[in-house]
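To whoever is on call:

I kicked off a structure prediction for a single chain this morning and the downstream step that reads the tokens threw a length-mismatch warning. I double-checked the sequence; it's 336 residues and nothing unusual in it as far as I can see. Pasting both halves so you can look.
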Amino acid sequence: MDPFLPVPPVHYGGIERVIYDIACRYSSMGHRVTLVAGPNSKSPDRLVTFGKNGNGSARLDYSLIEEVNAVLRQEIGGHDVLHNFGRLAFLLPVAWNRIRKIQTYMRRVRSRNVQLLNSIGVRNLTYTAVSNAIAKTGARGGGDWRTVYNCAPVERFTFASIVDASAPLVFLGRLERCKGAHNAIRAAKLSGRNLVIAGNVSSLPEEREYFHSELEPEFDAGQIRYIGEVDDTQKNALLGQAAALLLPVQWEEPFPVVLPEAFACGTPVLAFPGGGIPEGIIQGKTGFISTSPEEMARDVARLGELSRAECRAAAVREFSDHVIASRYLAIYSETH
């Protein structure tokens, strides 16, 4: 994984959380796992660290590739599979190695990069994406593509079969415009329900301006409450006590980890149809898809039609760490 956040993260970090959960599941199943990640990471088995924690960049960092290459030269001989959740360029030094390779995308794919790697004759590689929507953005570059959704360690979340009639709505995520916290506030106000907002404020100047000018003035001690970042224990309590999680995104959201986490608590999800989100929601059973704050507010009034038991069942059936780890294992076991 890219080294910018530790695996697992203390607060924000969806990809890093999934990697850790899958690694722990493999270890519990008797597999040997070497985790290659940034400083301050933890592994259920072996750990190799590289790079530095801090703000990452979309620009290609050749020093990171050199560090990863050095690690792979030393480690790859003792392993059966190389599963890369980091940037595609990490695979360049081993493109022709016979080891089974999996490249997982949790963001929109630059198909040109995939096309370039395929053009040099990369061997024994399968691409996976965390939603069909993301897989479609990569398939244009060629290669073998599969969809494997993000997971949550369901047994670590407390199922709440019922919540109080006055239970709040919850928004949990990065406080950037594309995540739609302003839409959540609008929907909550229209519905007359309380809203608790949790998440980190971006370091990008334009996103900090968005937070201070559009979100912060809405916060009060009553209907709209901001509680900052939350850790796993706080998240479990927050989602379990919520009437619904709101995901009114304004971008092609790949597949947010908080969706299966909410379901694990029995909490339904109300969302806008960006990216892979609709793939995770059973309309009218585990949530509602809407296209505006006004429509979302009307859906809040219909929460009684949804089943918290079905939300939990969906988390267990489709998105548990055991299920997702097993789906990756099936891909690892294929022969090319």
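Update from on-call: the warning came from a stale cache, not from the record. Cleared it. Sanity check on the structure: The longest strand covers residues 100-105.
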